[in-house]
Design goal:
The structure holds two protein chains of two kinds. By secondary structure, chain A is α/β, with parallel strands linked by helices. Chain A has helices at residues 19-45, 59-73, and strands spanning 53-56, 79-81, 88-93, 96-98, 100-104, 109-115, 122-124, 137-143, 149-155, 167-173. The chains are: A alpha/beta, B mainly alpha.
Chain lengths: 174, 526
């Protein structure tokens, strides 16, 4: 009495897994452990990591910081030349990134992202660096520009009907 | 008098009340799939820069429709039929309460109407992810809650029915593998609904502007994904059930090892629960160590049960075909059934799910997430796992399931074109998405020409034009499927019910065991 094609064997299946299936299982687990080891190595010894830096800031507090930063280093209507060694600030809002940053090639900067309205995601065209700008939370991203030029900054997180028009720029000078 | 439908192929029986419920859920699911595909067509044609069909507000509305119909509605409504079938027909029993099933359907349907209505009104173009503080119509969030309550009602019915079957001893020994898989899916869904309560209850109050002035965006994102990504594992588990089901319907395949397959199902319960954490790899939250354990380690272990099923299902087909005298190392692959639509769809489903799964695992790595986050890599992952994987798997299952319910498949020749068109279309679509991801094209972007930019705009157009072409091919394939499925169902059943006086359970008279009425002692190994 085996029932229909959908029924399991009445008894006995639970006793032991056949040897070949057990080997498959161990191979898959071994692969998983290998990949986990690889990812740990990349975190410990790789040079493409970005340690988490963050602080809590209400939109008003963060806007205040950005305004002070722009006042101090402004060189154009909405352009700021960031001196090497100083932290930079990038304010995301519907629908622009403020201000435009001028960085120096080969210098390491921390750029602080946050938003005053909804979640945004500044992405740098062609450079593929992508971190979130979340209202209420500021996030510091460490980067060292290695090519000169003008780079488009656009938004990667849907933020309303003007999403596709949300832009800014980063200029890297020699 | 009782109306009982018997499938002569499998010997399984179904009572009229349960069958009506299953058919209603199925039709709803196919309509949702059709809607998702029409929205997908609009989205693909807008993303192709050569056409750029829609203006921003229309594009974001179409994309919201696509995400919600394809992720929130179609798979879960289809799974409802699997749950109903797995807890009745497979266990040879009838529903403990069809009324509870109709209540579940009514709530789910009301929720769906509220969600789709608010999106159509233009006040809820917030995407599938709806990250607060993006604000949608309050009824949009309320619709999600009602829909979830509907699903929960159905799961309660599913659980009660298994208990009923066990108490009445209508099945022998262990649960059938497919019921076991759907039970795993049910547990995952209940856990996901706990996440949904945490996400949606504060949010609906915030949206109605009562009590809660502000919902923290990171709190919402964490709770949303503890629902959202766990629900994707409901879809994946149901997809695997559909794989086993298709192999059984089409070639009468049996799992190569019950224990192996059940271990794989059970592992989903362990590995999927902290799965939401990989959404935070580039967010201002936990330390790198926490992100590594919660995202990368969990993400890699997640692949193990899926890989087990991905090996076990083709192996079951291979074993069956070899048992029928197919020779050679690859002979079973030649005899797979490349002119049989469900087997073609099954093969594409397993392969594309593998591709999408690899994308997902890779994206849980910190360093890769920094560059692939929110670009076309993510749609490539979703379309591999859920569209190429789950949707094709469900479509393959449908080709076996409709005849099982007594509906003859109409337009068999179109079904063949449909299977190849959809499979190859998805392959091309996912390839185009990977190409775009390699260039860094952002997802959910209406205009990649960035009109008005005062910085150089990268040339990404070829990859996105290819995506447009692939989108049209795939959408055509799935629309043909929807038409085939609906016409087959509306043509009516070819099988009449058998009128039985007060049947206590759904055993065939010939197979009624001598010890019916209690759980039997294990007799012989079969």
């Amino acid at each position: 009495m085996a029932g229909t094609v959908f029924d399991p064997p009445v008894a006995g299946w639970e006793r032991q897994m056949p040897v070949d299936k057990r080997i498959f299982l161990w191979v898959l687990l071994g692969q998983a452990i290998f990949l986990i080891g690889l990812s740990a190595t990349m975190l410990l010894a790789g040079n493409h990591n970005n340690p988490v830096k963050q602080f809590h800031a209400t939109p008003e507090e963060f806007s205040q910081r950005v305004a002070e930063f722009v006042d101090k280093y402004q060189v154009g209507p909405r352009t700021v030349r960031v001196p090497p060694g100083e932290d930079a600030y990038l304010l995301a809002r519907m629908w622009s990134f403020y201000p435009d940053l001028i960085l120096k090639k080969g210098q390491t900067y921390t750029v602080w992202y946050s938003s005053v309205d909804v979640t945004h995601n500044p992405q740098i065209a062609g450079q593929r660096l992508s971190f979130q700008a979340v209202p209420g939370h500021a996030q510091g991203v460490t980067l060292t520009p290695n090519t000169t030029g003008t780079f488009l900054v656009y938004c990667g997180e849907y933020c309303g009907v003007g999403h596709q028009a949300m832009m800014g720029k980063i200029i890297v000078e020699e | 008098m009782e109306a009982i439908y018997t499938d002569p192929e499998t010997g399984l029986r179904l009572d009229r009340a349960t069958r009506r419920l299953i058919v209603t859920f199925l039709v709803t699911a196919f309509l949702a799939l059709g809607g998702a595909v029409i929205a997908a067509l609009l989205v693909a044609l807008t993303r192709a820069p050569a056409i750029q069909l829609l203006w921003p507000s229309a594009y974001y509305m179409a994309l919201t429709f696509h995400g919600i119909l394809a992720l929130t509605i179609w798979p879960h409504v289809f799974e409802a039929t699997l749950w109903l079938w797995a807890c009745t027909s497979l266990l040879r029993t009838r529903l403990i309460s069809p009324a509870l099933g109709w209540l579940a359907y009514g709530l789910a349907f009301l929720g769906i109407l509220m969600i789709l209505g608010t999106v159509a009104s233009g006040n809820a173009s917030v995407m599938y992810t709806m990250y607060v503080p993006l604000r949608a119509d309050p009824l949009f969030y309320l619709g999600h809650i009602i829909y979830a309550v509907g699903l929960l009602t159905l799961l309660i019915l599913f659980g009660l029915n298994i208990l009923k079957a066990r108490a009445e001893g209508t099945y022998l020994g262990s649960l059938p593998l497919l019921t076991y898989g759907m039970a795993v899916a049910a547990i995952l869904t209940v856990v996901a609904i706990i996440g949904a309560v945490a996400a949606f209850v504060p949010t609906v109050l915030w949206a109605f502007r009562i009590l809660i002035p502000k919902v923290d965006p990171l709190y919402f994102k964490a709770t949303f994904w503890s629902m959202g990504h766990t629900l994707q594992y409901t879809n994946i588990t149901a997809m695997v059930v559909a794989w086993y089901g298709t192999a059984t319907f089409m070639v009468k395949a049996k799992p190569v090892s019950e224990k192996f397959s059940r271990w794989a199902f059970a592992l989903y319960l362990v590995t999927t629960l902290p799965v939401f954490m990989h959404h935070f790899l580039v967010d201002p939250t936990w330390s790198l160590a926490v992100k590594w354990i919660g995202a990368t380690v969990v993400g890699i272990f997640l692949g193990v049960p899926s890989a087990m099923h991905g090996l076990a299902v083709p192996a079951s087909v291979e074993k069956t075909l070899r048992g029928r005298g197919v020779r050679g190392l690859w002979g079973w692959l030649r005899e797979w059934g490349w002119n049989n639509p469900p087997m073609v769809l099954l093969a594409f489903s397993v392969l594309l799910f593998g591709v999408g799964g690899f994308d997902g695992t890779a994206a849980t790595t910190m360093q890769i997430n920094m560059i692939e986050h929110n670009n076309m890599w993510i749609p490539a992952h979703i379309h591999g796992t859920l569209a190429g994987g789950a949707t094709l798997g469900f479509m393959a299952f449908t080709y076996g399931f409709l005849p099982h319910l007594g509906f003859e498949i109409k337009g068999k020749r179109f079904a063949q074109y449909q299977a190849w068109l959809t499979g190859l279309g998805f392959t091309l679509l996912i390839a185009a998405m990977h190409w775009g991801a390699h260039l860094g094209v952002p997802r959910r972007m209406q205009d990649i020409r960035f009109l008005g930019a005062d910085a150089p705009v990268p040339n990404w157009f070829n990859s996105m034009n290819l995506l447009g072409i692939a989108g049209v091919l795939t959408a055509t394939g799935i629309l043909i499927f929807v038409v085939i499925a609906l016409t087959s169902m509306f043509a009516g059943s070819t099988r009449g019910p058998e009128m039985v006086a007060e049947a206590k359970d759904l055993w065939l008279p010939s197979e009624r065991p001598a010890f019916a009425g209690g759980n039997p002692a294990p007799s012989a190994t079969v």
